[in-house]
Amino acid sequence: MSTNNLYNKEAKAKIKELAESIDFAMLATTINHMPFHVIPMSTKKVDDEGNVWFLSGKDSDHNKNIIADPKVQLMYSKPGDMTFMVVSGEATITTDPQILKELYGKTDDNWFDGLDDPNLTAIQIKPHSAHYWEPKHNKLVTLFKMGVGAISGENPDIAEQGNLHS
To answer: How far is CA 115 from the centre of its chain?
Structure first.
């Protein structure tokens, strides 16, 4: 497994690429206390600064947890593609109408009563660090190399991992 550490612009681009392609993340709050609170969230966008955005209910436990302690972790997982990413950062909550309008989509009507819902908020996660794992090749090639490795006893170089620092 090779390691590729990315900084600044490259790191922000990698966070955007992986977060948007995987979409769903587990958002962990109260990370300094066990057990921490975890909830699935759909990524609405990753901006040019590498900030990850979600929509959330003002009255939700995770919003309350963020107000008490803004340190969070995002865990992205796409096992079918063998792609994973963990992001550590700081969260802020906003009710800025422009941001809400930009992030809100028709499917969000399943959780909110439209853009005017007083419970609607956006969460911005500013990454401090991240770590990713992804295959170097497509899934078929990766599985083939894993099979060859199992037969030969050798460890094939099938994946790439790296630290992302913005």
So the answer is: 24
CB 18 within 8 A of CB 83: yes
Token pair of 140, please? Answer: 């078929």
Which residues neighbour 76 within 8 Å (Cβ) at sequence distance 6 or greater? Answer: 18, 19, 22, 24, 25, 83, 84, 85, 86, 87
Structure tokens at 11: 């790191």
Q: What is the pLDDT of residues 80-136, one digit of tens each?
A: 888 889 999 999 999 999 999 999 999 999 999 999 999 999 999 999 988 888 775
How is residue 2 written in tokens? 């090779």
Task: Give the residue ranges of DSSP H helices in 23-152.
Answer: 61-68, 97-103, 139-152
* Rg (alpha carbons) of the chain, rounded to whole number: 18
Beta strands per DSSP E along the chain: 2-3, 6-7, 24-29, 37-42, 45-46, 52-57, 71-78, 83-94, 120-135, 159-165
pTM value?
A: 0.81
Residue reference for tokens 């991240």: 130
pLDDT of residue 154 exceeding 70: no
